[in-house]
Amino acid sequence: MQLKVSLFILLALGTVGCVDIPDFSDTPKIYYNGIDQQTETNDSTQKPIRENVIITIDFEDGDGDLGATDVERSDSTFLRPYGNWGNYELITARLGANGKWTESILAEDQYKWMPILKPDGKPGPIKGKLDLNTSFLYGNSTVPVFVKFKVRIRDRALHISDQIETDSIQVPGYR
């Protein structure tokens, strides 16, 4: 019996020793995963109200310091170093009639924030998926337009990820 317990402990220790901790950079790295959209309609008339867009990215970060709390997002001292965007940067590129893409940061997308992704606060590598949401309203004079997005994220130490670009999709817009 003593031999079985000792053997079990040795095997358990050997297995634990085989787990590799990822060696990610402390600067976040992102990868384009996909883009999806859903039309929200009026319940009674079934008329389209808004086009909801979800951009999914995969991320990895070596020290896991991604996100901000609600309290921090309302603290001007915390926000000051972030400048004119939060911890998501979402640039919308719109295809014009001339066939050229025009980039801008829409007012509703200027300050995008993700919640704290590692609530225990302990530094260490994390990876996962993030869904970034934005929307476009339908109106009486909207027409279908093509848009695509450029996304970056930054961590609490203000390290900025590389930038990814999405596929283009059609949403309501004005000419």
Fold blueprint:
Layout: H1 2-17, E1 29-41, E2 48-61, H2 70-73, H3 76-79, E3 88-95, E4 101-104, E5 126-137, E6 143-153, E7 164-165, E8 169-173
Antiparallel strand pairs: 1-2, 2-5, 3-4, 3-6, 6-7, 6-8
For the largest beta-sheet, the strand count, sense and barrel status come to: 5 strands, antiparallel
Q: Which class do the helix and strand fractions yield?
A: mainly beta
- Tell me roughly what share of residues is in helical segments: 10-25%
And the CATH topology? Coagulation Factor XIII, Chain A, domain 1
- The average pLDDT value, as a whole number, equals 90
Search tags:
single chain; 175 residues; mainly beta; Coagulation Factor XIII, Chain A, domain 1; 5-stranded antiparallel β-sheet; 3-stranded antiparallel β-sheet; 8 strands; 39% strand
Short synopsis of the structure:
The protein has 175 residues and is mainly β.
What would your notes on this structure say?
This protein has 175 residues and is mainly beta. The protein has a single domain (19-173), classed as Coagulation Factor XIII, Chain A, domain 1, CATH 2.70.50. Helix content is 14%, strand content 39%. It has three helices and eight strands; from the N terminus they run αββααββββββ. Strands 3, 4, 6, 7 and 8 form a five-stranded antiparallel β-sheet that branches. It is elongated. The model has no long low-confidence stretch (mean pLDDT 90).
